[in-house]
């Protein structure tokens, strides 16, 4: 029975997905779509804060600092959530921090 448990865990948890073995998800078509197309209004807004009339550099810098703070908060929060999901459901740290591919050393399944 102990040899069937890892196979069962692989079948139930991992569904045949493996690690990407390389650059993990950043330079894909979705990244270019988001940064080159979706965020164009944000780029125009930030440029207009400094190039438009009336020009107020102090308010523009305040707006840029808000954008940087909100973006950092979202990215850091999602990174922490990704690490927690990787540890709980996939048995190890996500690929940039840990080894590629699934692991059977999940602490949540230590009682099995």
From TrEMBL:
Report what the protein is called: Uncharacterized protein
| Top-level taxon in the UniProt lineage | Archaea
Write out the entry's keywords from A to Z. Answer: Membrane, Transmembrane, Transmembrane helix
Q: Does the keyword Membrane apply?
A: yes
Q: Which residues cross the membrane?
A: 29-52, 64-90
